[in-house]
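Researcher: Here's the sequence for the chain we discussed earlier.
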Amino acid sequence: MLKNTLSSEQLEKIDAYWRAANYLSVGQIYLYDNPLLREPLKLSHVKPLVVGHWGTTPGQNFIYVHLNRVIKKYDLDMFYIAGPGHGGPALVSNVYLEATYSEIYPNISQDEAGLKKLFTQFSFPGGISSHVAPSTPGSIHEGGELGYSLSHAFGAAFDNPDLIVACVIGDGEAETGPLATAWQSNKFLNPITDGAVLPILHLNGYKISNPTVLARIEHEELEQFFRGCGWTPYFVEGHEPEKMHELMATTLERAIEDIRKIQKNARNKNDITRPRWPMIVLKSPKGWTGPKFVDGLQIEGTFRSHQVPLLVDSEHPEHVQQLESWMKSYKAEELFDENGRLIPELAELAPKGDRRMGANPHTNGGTLLRDLRMPDFREHAVSVPSPGSVDGQDTLVLGNFLRDVVKLNQHQRNFRIFGPDETLSNLLGAVFEVTNRQWDAREANNDEFLAPTGRVVDSMLSEHQCEGWLEGYLLTGRHGLFNSYEAFIRIVDSMFSQHAKWLKVTLELPWRRKIASLNYLLASHVWQQDHNGFTHQDPGFLDHVINKKADIARVYLPPDANCLLSVFDHCLRSRHYVNVVVAGKHALPQWLKMEAAVMHCTEGIGIWQWASNDQNAEPDVVMACCGDTPTLEILAAVSILREHLPDLKIRVVNVVDLMKLQSASEHPHGLSEADYDSLFTTDKHIIFAFHGYPWLVHRLTYRRTNRNLHVRGYKEEGTITTTFDMRVQNDLDRFHLVQDVVDRLPHLGAKGTYLKQMVQDKLIEHKHYINKHGQDLPEIRNWKWGNPQ
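Model: Thanks. This is the structure I predict for it:
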């Protein structure tokens, strides 16, 4: 007969601790007063509005107490990611029981008064949300939107060789695209240099009102699915607490032993063979230990337990007694002393100090964050003898800088580049001179830059995983960037939103330390789609980003390589922002010497005096630009205007920091009204060439004095065509911009009329030429800024 893992005393205490967590969870959902039921429960003790989610909670409490046991037994560095959506009561209950919560929030004390506050604050005005949130100690994962838990877990495990991330995955969550793909993340985990992820699929059978797919397939099929994904699944199934405690304890120990064996073999023998990591499938009733039937309907083990399983209000007064019976089934009088504190023999079950999952330093990554060692970006400067005299590929230049960042931080192992198979395409290939792509699956002849360890993780074609891995990496105190095609960063719109919300909320929590910024490099952008066409054209991520809090969002569109270097150096040094940088990879004119670029980027916006001729008079028109391609076309338009209308006074304004356009009252980077007016005037026409959708600039400037703003940008026109024709189709080209100026300045008279006719003829000539030759006019391809007089 096999020996039990748990002694009878251990089993009894673990079950009691679980009951305590369940009691606290029910109390949070329902109670406003009488937290220990020291008097008969009345309707007045129940919150006027009862909201919350019970279904996932008892299972998560069950997992937490068993993880506590193995942490203590094996002295594990472990924390808990709660994937099931609104499992907030479970995590709050457990970090309260281990005393982490009261240390961070002293007003929620370890006594009856503290319990009352703990219960009252849950889903209550001015309190805490019903899901695991930034305010929950031990959390790096917002529980509101499903799908990202396992990606975050792997990001946290990268470069943390002693860490085990216990990732609890709801079976509803498992149906999301990001989570379904995240099972493949084990092909990117190095058992020598990285930590481990222990997925625990919480298979309780139901979503809000539907069954879950993985709960309704046969056991054999489920097991084969996970084995096919490269895991060794262990199953813990049942509903009887005593049997389930023993089975869970035995299974968890086996999983921990497997992890230790894998890591010991890999580290002692330098064995890079991809292991089959363990995972656990916990199959337990939804709403376990809750009401079995209410008003004749089965609750426990059905979808009806998902949210509030028992309505307790003035319309259901008879349910007060049923709630009281449910809560008393946990026998709180055996669990808490006369002061309302967890009794010592149960409190002893929780780990101590930083080993508590709510106090694990990795879950407050800013406390572990160390500055990157940064190279001098000026060493990579493009030599620019005069504006526009040389061409350069901006992201190619940036790649050399990032190579040096990787090299300088190799030993610290705190910087990674993530992307969906686009690092080479976006011309950042220089990084492969000093590192490889991390890849732990099988290799074949002709593979490039694949190795079991590397600073680049770009071998999975999933924007969701890249985003989730990077977020997990940043949240646990490291640095990184995500490079992507501009159009397809939209795939992670919602993930970005959740992370931005996390940053916003944590700014309001003094105990949360700032983390490294989430840096996006968006290349292969809308204006550079030679062979891809309309499907690859979408600059709308910028519109999405600026909706977020001004404390968080930053958007940069450097016009050339030197500006890109300056901007990215700033972004990698920054903290607690989302930085979006848009840059091109095709050869374009280079405008600024390095020192001028640094000054321009520091200011974020400015007059380019060398391109302007209004130094001694008021301008007739302001020509503004934001983005590399719009800058090229504005300057080309200026050269035409100055050649044919030499008396026309033109001011050229270039924008690097998009948020400069917003008012200083709305964004910390915004210009004051006086500064904006000094650049753009209060009444002159502004012809603004913008990288993205034109209305974004109008949104940012709608409060400004000068209403004579005319923005040209992307307007959903495009196909497989020439580079210049893309601009023509969207009216962003030099010829349309010249026409714009003439149309806005009727005093130009006949000279303006003839110039407008000339550029219209050029547009027709352009169309005929590309249809015949398949490339742009020589004068377009060979154009150089000539500093017209």
